[in-house]
Amino acid sequence: MIDLYFWTTPNGYKPLILLEELKLDYRLVPVDIGKGEQFEAGFLKIAPNNRIPALVDHDPADGGAPISIFESGAILEYLADRQDRLLPRLPRPRFEVLQWLYWQMGGLGPMAGQNHHFTQYAPEKIPYAIKRYVDETARLYAVMNRRLADRDYLAGEYSIADIACYPWVASHEKQQQDLNDFPHLRRWFEAIALRPAVTAAYTKGRAVNSKDGMSDEAKKLLFGQNASSIR
Question: Looking at the domain 2-85+209-230, which fold is it?
Answer without folding.
Answer: Glutaredoxin (3.40.30)
